[in-house]
Structure formats: structure tokens, C-alpha cells
Amino acid sequence: MLSELNSMDWERLRSVASPRLYALITLSFMITNLASSDENRSAATSSVVRIATYNVSLYGKKTGEVAERLRQGTDKQARAIAAIVQTIRPDILLLNEIDHDDDAHTAKLLRDQYFAVGRDDRVGIEFPYVYSAPSNTGIASQIDLNGNGRRDDPEDAWGFGLYPGQYAFAILSRFPIESNSIRTFQSYNWARLPNALRPIDPQSQETYYSDSTWNALRLSSKNHVDVPINLNGKFIHILASHPTPPVFDGPEDRNGCRNHDEIAFWNHYLDGSEALVDDSGKIGGLSSSDSFVIMGDLNSDANEGSSRAQAIVALLHHPRVQDPKPQRTSNTATTPKNDAMDTADFGTVGEIRVDYVLPSADMKVREAKVFWPAKGAKGSDWIHASDHRLVWVDVEPSKPSKLLRSTD
Question: Against a cut of 0.70, is the pTM above it?
């Protein structure tokens, strides 16, 4: 390894190599050291932390299929995803739509076989800490939720899915995850949310779900999680979720209502609502003194699309939240203002903003971008690995914060 050469080795190399070869080797050594320096950017010397969300669209048709694809390190989609992650080099990364396993097996395969392996001119990136969030997707409710007379459809699961753990999400971090303090709201009942939007049939004006079904339904189509991360003594709460798309339903707009309320959950969480109860029985939301980042594929655009935008608008304007308004990397002076913040390309539906990294107002935002290279530019072929784009924000946490463990 070049990095292991001592001064005597360099003198010996100089004596036997041509001037041109010696210059090339020296340049290679400098590049390697720069990459190594970047690898330790946040953990060592910089107070700026890069936080990213990316819906990677890694799902299969049955349990274990994605893990099998990833096992050998040769999957083309995963390699393109890794190329983007290695280029942006986030310190904390939320991955939407990757299978959940109790031991985070699938997420760790992506980390170890792809992210950590340098290819072409890219250096691998290490994420020592991984959290795979349990998901409602594919877990049978034993209730006919879509009204077709059956109880075993993917639509009849607590969250749409062909198998348990499909479309789940995971958090990868270069900083320690405070596992004992994680809060999850996987089982939280939709009906308990303040001002919940209960779907109504517009023709009959009757509620779409019976009382028994409504009182049994879970709010989260996947999960809502609060994951504290220790940034060298400064704690930041990653508030992650992936609300259901506000489509694929009927005139009652049951998915639109659910999407709205899954986003509204965070407004209540920031307000400390005592109507919220996590899976361990702990009541209430986030402390008013805690720093946080709300992130994920929220499936709602404040200005266009099919969602009920009131919830995302309220979240973007919440006094504890700042919207860094990330700009796509191919943004030009002629790009319309709203289009410059788009994060997904849904084909005939068009390009909209659905993926968010929203830091708390107490943190300083240094930069915010959407990885979306112009056609023909480096990386433009990688982005087709998913219909979403990676979004990142560079933040500088303002102060240490007290961490309240779930056992307190």
C-alpha cells in the first residue's frame, strides 16, 4: 500500500523509477490521502455533518429475494446506488425501500458488499452503525381493508406489502446510534392521532371503515421512529418515516388521508402531544430542547401532485423546523424555482418533491442538494437505479443536548 511506504522506501523508489512514473505514483499517493482524509471529515475535525435520505427501490417479490441479489456484490442496481453514496459520502444515511430483517442482514449486505467496496475512481465508505426499522408492510391484519371480500391481499396488511418487511427502511451512520433510546410507533393506532382524517365515502357520506376496523388500524404504513445519534457528545434525533403514497385507492381517498396523517404525526411529535404513545408505552413527543432531522420519502409535494398538502405545508412551516430547500445539482438559471427542488421522477406523473431532510431550526445549514446530474454528466447513468434521487443537507449542530433514555 502506498500509504505504508516510509521515507527510505520513497528514496529507493525515486532511484529506480523514471521521473514520469515517480510523479504518477506521488500523485496517486496524494489522491489516496485526500480520500482517506474525506472519510474522516466529520468524525475527526469538522463540526459539519452530512445527512442524506435516499429511496433506493430495493424490493423483491418474496422474503429473502433482495438479500440473495446483494450477496455476491455484483447487482447492477446496487452498484449504481453505491456509486451515488460513495460520491456524496453522507455521515448519516436513511435508506427507504430496503427489506427489514431482525438482524439488519439485507441493509448490512448493501453496506458491506457495495458501499464499503471502492470501484473505478471511488473510495469505499464505511458505516459502522446500522438500524433496520421494523415495518408494518406485509404483516397481515386479518381484516378486509380494501372491501373485496378477502383478508389476504397485500392491501389487507397493516401496510401494503407482498411479504413482511418489504419497502422498509434502515439508517446507516458513521456515528454511534443510541440503540437503547430508540422510540418506535409501529403499533400506534390511527384513530388516536389528534384530528385524524377518517376516510368518508363521498357518495353515501358514510365512513369508509367500520368502527371496529377504524379503531384497529395502525397509522404507520411502515413505521415512525426516533433514532438518537451521538455526534461526539452532541445528540441529534433522526425522525424517520415513509408514509403511504396518496394514490391507489378510491373516491374515499383512504391512502390520501393516511398519507396526510402520517406526515401530521411529526407536527404533533414536535409539539410534545401526550396523545402519542410509542411501542414501549412511553407517552409524549420530542423534548423542546432536542435537535432533530425529519427525513424520508414523505410522498407529498407542497405545490403539486395528488396528496393532501396541508400536512406537509404545516410541517415545512413548523416553528421548530427549517426547510433548507435543496437544489438539484443540475439546476440552471432557467430552471423553475419549484422544479429545482424536485426529488423524484415518476414518469408520466412527472417530477415532484417528495423526499425531505428537514433539520431543526437550532442547527446551521451549510449546504443542501439533490443529486440529479444533467444528462450526459458524470453520474447521470447512476440515477436510473431508482425513481427517487438522493437528497443531502450539511448541518452544524449548535449545542450538546440531554439524551432521555427510554428507561428514564
Answer: yes
